[in-house]
Amino acid sequence: MCAQRVNAKLPARGGVGLKADHYHRILNDKPDMGFFEIHAENYMGAGGPPHGYLEAIRRDYPISLHGVGLSIGGADPLNKEHLSRVKDVADRYDPGLFSEHLAWSTHDTEYFNDLLPLPYTEVTLQQVVDHIDEVQTFLGRQMLLENPSAYVIFKESTYEETEFLREIVKRTDCGLLLDVNNVFVSATNSGGSPEDYVDRFPVEHVQEIHLGGHAPETDELGYPILIDAHDRKVADPVWALYARTIDRTGPQPTLIEWDANIPTWKILAYEAEQADVVIQSHIETQAQAAEKRGDHVPSA
After folding, report:
1. Spans of the chain, pLDDT less than 70
2. How many Å apart are CA 117 and CA 156, to the nearest integer?
3. Alpha-carbon distance 115 to 259, whole Å?
4. Do 78 and 135 touch, CB atoms closer than 8 A?
5. What is the pLDDT of residues 259-277, one digit of tens each?
6. Strands 206-212, 254-257: pairing kind
7. Nearest to 189 by CA among 143, 142, 238, 225
8. DSSP readout, 14-45?
């Protein structure tokens, strides 16, 4: 029997990915953090120190469970063994939310290290819908689907990405995870407007937001391109886009993704605090607007 845990529900605050580098700092200091995210694939073993640390941290904090290996957008059937391992982790730690990517990463028996894009057609739409239905039924919980970072655009696509996601939600009742850095990266790489994308996104289905750092690179032809690197601080234009997003979605659990070149706890926690600042600013602005409207309401 596990010791008593805090409520699984994620607060509308900043959170960070749980890294082994910070286990001891978290357990010793119990910092004021909204939640932690774990990757399901990192906790699929039956035991060992990672589970010991996670169990202790889960008693004090809610967690979000994020998958990277189900290949939701793939043409092949889902790997039943992998799906079963995801369920084991979810059942063991009772996450507040579970999410996966609108991408594919397997073919036959091959597993790739990247989350690969897919064309937005009726055929791929049905594949994704079938896979999400299978995941949600097997896990017995709702799944959130994350918008990808894109470096190519398929000529075969017959849906805009936002409409593709809207249709998936309509057919599956899944939720959405809006990765604001992915929006900025994809729009910049394609020459589009990240603000227009956010304005068209079906925000009524968003239950979590991701933020991360991106790296400026050049492609093989020498053209500039942004890479969703997760190895640095969130860029200022992404923070501005996040504020615009929160104005549309309202306060949401917001994860800082930092998966390479892991910083000190102080630096990582500061990024999450900046998300809290944006959320609190939105709350205060809404309260002030409501108060002003109330000034003009005739007395009874």
Report:
1. 1-2, 104-116, 295-300
2. 13
3. 15
4. yes
5. 999 999 999 999 999 999 9
6. parallel
7. 225
8. EEEE--GGGHHHHHHH----S-EEEEGGGG-S
